[in-house]
Amino acid sequence: xxxxxxxxxxxxxxxxxxxxxxxxxxxxxxxxxxTVAHELGEVQVVKNPQNVVVLDFGMLDTMDxxxxxxxxxxxxxxPEYLSHFNTDEFSSVGGLRELDFEAIHALNPELxxxxxxxxxxxxxxxxxxxxxxxxxxxxxxxxxxxxNVHTLGKxxxxxxxIDESLTQIDETIAQIKEKxxxxxxxxxxxxxxxxxxxxxxxxx
Length: 204
Known about the structure:
Oligomer: single chain
Distance between the termini: 81 Å
Shape: globular
Radius of gyration: 23 Å
Low-confidence stretches: 1-28
Helix content: 40-55%
């Protein structure tokens, strides 16, 4: 009788475990994934991920323009043009260089987006969720920017919208080049009360 009871319990656990595995497989089967190649490697990312953590202000601005939802951002030193993210709707994950790993982990993200400032934390962030590097190359800014945006398009099914937006950007650049033809210009950066000038070959 005792052996029969133990056998029944074992069989019951097996049925429950099998049911759970089937449910998980069915759930995962409904989520398509893509392979994203980036500067730091390749990673599998689910399409239209949830609870996205973005650790780059430029990429955050781009995603905002495209209407892509984010969950966690580095609210420390948030620039004025992104001040509308400074609400309870978005979780703070520290600063660009001083990340709050506990806060990131608590969000249970399906994707983390980083840039140059977080390269050293790439492995640690990858242990939390799929992490991709979408920083721009200062020596080839526009091409790297477009590549990053196209990557977003593939992940979030926004390719058509992105093509249209990039066309508008190219048209704006062409108009500015036409206006600047034959003229001299100075590019300056104002940051926390200091002003810096930049010439040809600089990051700007």
